[in-house]
């Protein structure tokens, strides 16, 4: 728990629409700025196993807890939307004077990355270079609403019973649901699951689960924009996927290969929904190889 506590103690704060947003930064390398975008229902802590190596490679590494998650504010009366989460990231980059950046995203964060890709395309079309997205690396996530296999608890949160499900949810139920998306050989320990639970519950966060889960409906509503952002992307994109993930594993990869021209995919057999936690060395190697080849030395 010392490392977990240190992660929070070393965090910084950003104000967004009157609410405090927790974020971490580091760096010391030469490869520009990397923004790490976490998934549902966890937080920036998801990146802790690869964080030191990322900081060695990149000049700046930034990861925040999106509003409603982790150690950030979790207002009860708030319109939680993917576009707003993208705003938070862009506002932080502008506040820090960062013009160019790379993205590493996971799960819910993939959808935020797709929105950032769509905005980047709009800025490029307008000749606006105030903020430039240079590359995107995606981990397991619901890139296509038709392939996203929501867990039972997610479907319940999205139902009319959602408010009650969120409030009455227990730690043991949370543990069972989350551990089920990991690979057969890489399930989290009880201590790790407890950390995830603390992140979910802090500041009465679980009462907002039914609002945060609306991202699944947003994916259907904005499918053309967000899938189109991948198909028409003007920057290098790599997908690193744990194939054993029941939510967005091998079946999602197959759809990705159908819809994306010249797909750059790294498959991780027997790894589940959290490659950065289950296979940190493989995930890191795939990310750094991507930056060394496709990003730093683009083909002409």
Query: With helices defined by DSSP (H or I, 4 residues minimum), what is the helix count?
Result: 14
Gyration radius, rounded: 18 Å
Q: From the helix content, strand content and strand pairing, which structural class follows?
A: alpha/beta
Q: DSSP strand (E) fraction?
A: 15-25%
Terminal Cα span: 48 Å
Strand order of the largest sheet: 1-2-4-3-5-6-7-8
Query: Helicity, in percent?
Result: 40-55%
Main sheet: strands, sense, barrel: 8 strands, mixed
Instruction: Write down the overall mean pLDDT.
Output: 93
Report the order of strands and helices.
HEEEHEHEHEHHHHHHHEHEHH
Write down the overall geometry.
globular
Please give the number of β-strands: 8
Low-confidence stretches: none
Summarize, please:
With 300 residues, the chain is of the alpha/beta class. It contains 14 helices and 8 strands.
Describe, in plain words, how this protein is organized in 3D.
There is one protein chain. The chain has 300 residues and is α/β, with parallel strands linked by helices. The chain has helices spanning 2-9, 51-57, 82-95, 108-125, 152-157, 162-168, 171-179, 190-201, 209-212, 215-221, 223-231, 250-259, 275-278, 280-295; strands at 12-16, 19-26, 33-37, 60-64, 100-105, 132-138, 237-242, 265-268. The chain has an 8-stranded mixed sheet with strand order 1-2-4-3-5-6-7-8, sandwiched between helices. It is globular and about 50 Å long. The protein starts with a helix and ends in a 5-residue tail after the last helix. The mean pLDDT is 93.
